[in-house]
Every structure is written in C-alpha cells, then in structure tokens.
Amino acid sequence: MDAPGTSLRVAALAKGAGFNACAQFMKARVGDARYAAMIARAPVSARDVLENAMSASWYPIAALDTLLNLYSRERGFRGTMDARDEFEALGRYVAEDNLTGIYRALLRVLSAHGAVPMMPRMWSQYFKEQRCQLEWDRTRTEARLTVAGLPIAHLGAVAAGWQQAALRLSTHPGATVVEERYARGQMTSDPMVFRIVW
After folding, report:
1. Cβ(18)–Cβ(64) under 8 Å?
2. What single DSSP character describes residue 41?
3. Listed range (2-16, 23-37, 143-157) with the worst mean pLDDT
4. SS3 for 174?
5. Alpha carbons 123 and 168: distance in angstroms, whole number
6. What is the pTM of this model?
7. Which of 74, 133, 151, 175 is positioned for an S-S bond with 198, CB 3.0–4.6 A?
8. CA distance 41 to 44
9. CA 114, CA 93: separation in Å to the nearest integer?
10. What are the tens digits of pLDDT across the range 133-160?
C-alpha cells in the first residue's frame, strides 16, 4: 500500500493505430516475410500486441519500444545518425496515415501559430500518461516542446517526423522539428525535447 500522500505511477500506454501504421511502413520497407520473422523474435507479451493490435485500443509502451528496437536491428542501424532519416520517415508516414478527420481539416486551415499550440493535445491521440510542456513566445517562429514519460528507443526521431508532417499540413510546408537529444546521439530520451521551427 502507498504511504499517505503518494500515488501509484500509472504506466504509459500507446494507441494501436500507431502500431498498425508502423507495421504497414515496416512491411513496405522490408517485406512481409522479414517483418514476420522480426516480430517472431519479440518477447511473447510484445509479440501478442504487435500481431493483434486494434487501432482504437491502448497497449503498454514496452511493445512499441520492442518494435522500434527490432526494426532498428533488422535494418542494421548502428546509432542515431544511421537511423534518424528512416525513423523520421516512419513518423511522417504515421502522421499521414492517422491524421484524419478534424485534425487534418484544422491543420489545413491553420497557420503554424495556430497549429503549434495543438501539439501537446495531439500527443494524447497516441499516448496516455505522458507529460507535455510547450514553451513559446508567440512573437517568434520557433517553439520548444518537452515530452516526458515515454522512454522508447527511437521515438524522438519518429515523433519529430510525425510533428513535422502535421505542421507541413498547415500553411508552413518548410517546418522542421528536431528532438535535441536524439540529434546528439541519444537513442532513448526521457524527457524528449523538440525544437520546432517554421
């Protein structure tokens, strides 16, 4: 039992829609057979999620960490510099696949000044129990977003690509997003710190 005044830390969860989009991207890159062999190497608990994820359901982030690590090994990446372009491309693919409905419609009509404040809320479409903090002087075309509670390998690059694709749907096709620690060679960052420029 917890001591008075303390609370249990709830484990972070990831939404199945993200797993399924990752699987589509990875299969297109390595083929169905190599993808299946890669998933077969996952621990049983993660393999069950990776083989049966339902788009609207929530799963432990450990399964996503397993998936991204397995893919990195399958592709032979030796570090973040090798892997960055591929994982950013994965993030862009997930955004294009999953950003539908109201978010896509809003992003198409918003400037980056309207889209950037939506970023913390958009994280909740894919994860539960993360913490987001946006630092931004509205007179500038640069912001910093800190996301904590998601210690997942390569997520910094995936999320940078996802956010970049989301912002490019707005009126700023030249927007860039970099997760600072991943760019310096740190594969897993908690917290992740994104520099957003448009």
Report:
1. yes
2. T
3. 2-16
4. coil
5. 17
6. 0.91
7. 175
8. 9
9. 22
10. 999 999 999 999 999 999 999 999 999 9
